[in-house]
């Protein structure tokens, strides 16, 4: 056997590797901070609405009042779905994973509203921002109630549109604004796994929808977007803070992961976590469920005490969504409703200065072998 030379330095999971330029987002650039086009996450969560942030991410600047009003109206007009897509959604089984429903719906839309010279990336991005909640809720209500729901809610806020389709009635302002803020927090996060997937696919120059389907697939896993659903499983396992303390110690003893904690880029805190924590608290109070917050906060303090680890956005999002009466398997799809903005921004940035993304591997297989004829194997 001929020995192979072992080249190159190996970097596990590309941690700490800078793989390209981007003007969209700073994530952990200055300690534990996050900004979109220079605007701090704390300011956006305090003062902006999700559509304002979507406009910023897709167009690189904040809209003025008139532009925002027009943009929200334009999005509201793009929420209905083509009949052919509704028919497809009706065919998807009721027990399907909701992320698969979204991936299939986006893929199908790519067949009937194809990207072309006259229907470009920005228009498709707006169309998906407007219609992703409609896709999921049409499928969901068709299978839950047997009804073909009207997707025209008259709501200009994405959060209100989604909640109205879910509840069948107008959400409270607390419910609406909590989800609106969570959409802002989830919108963009630099070269995370799903965004990097979108950029990698984009770099081969396919259509818009192909890249977004890849992003949805990457987000589905529990180490990425799927963590918010798993975090709720964990929190609901415990009836009180004392049993949570003991239970987390047992899990750590077994060296298992606690979902909703830790981060690849942030080292001591996730700047989004205190924001969603405060909204989760308000929602828990509003449904008179202080226990869920007490359990979650105890898990948080055990993780700090035992592992020096902090909650990421997914941990208290799980509490917030649960207290907003959102079904658990919709948590990661809500992430998609939001992250479509960041993915689209990165897709357009990648196209504007494209270079095929094609790294190398560190080969660990055998050296060159003599060919083995069939009879000798
Ligand atoms: C986010 C995450 C994937 C980052 O992973 P990473 O950068 O590869 O970090 P590592 O897995 O190398 O973690 C470093 C150490 O902290 C531990 N650790 C990290 N996150 C942990 C968690 N959530 N629970 C328990 N231990 C954790 C690891 O076991 C490892 O310990 P070791 O050095 O003794 O082996 C990881 O923290 C994780 O799996 N978290 C849970 C899933 C989650 O919440 N994902 C959403 C991310 S926004």
Structural notes for this entry:
With 377 residues, the chain is an all-alpha fold. It folds into 2 domains: 209 residues, Orthogonal Bundle (Citrate Synthase, domain 1), CATH 1.10.580; 97 residues, Cytochrome p450-Terp, domain 2. Helix content is 56%, strand content 2%. It is built from 16 helices and 3 strands. It has a 3-stranded antiparallel beta sheet. Strand 1 and strand 2 form a beta hairpin. Helix 4 packs across helix 6, helix 5 packs antiparallel against helix 10 and helix 8 runs antiparallel to helix 15. The longest helix has 25 residues. The model has no long low-confidence stretch (mean pLDDT 95).
**Biggest sheet overview:** 3 strands, antiparallel
Percentage of residues in strands: under 5%
Class from helix and strand fractions: mainly alpha
Total domains, how many? 2
Q: Considering the protein shown, what is the CATH homologous superfamily of the largest domain?
A: Citrate Synthase, domain 1
- Give helix and strand order, one letter per element, not per position: EEEHHHHHHHHHHHHHHHH
Distinct ligands, ions and cofactors found in the model: coenzyme A
Please compute the radius of gyration using only Cα atoms: 22 Å
Q: Mean pLDDT, as a whole number?
A: 95
**CATH architecture field of the largest domain:** Orthogonal Bundle
How many alpha or pi helices? 16
Strand order of the largest sheet: 1-2-3
* Distance N to C terminus: 17 Å
The residue fraction in helices comes out at: 55-70%
CATH class of the largest domain: Mainly Alpha
| Low-pLDDT residue spans | none
CATH topology of the largest domain: Citrate Synthase, domain 1
- General form: globular
Number of strands: 3
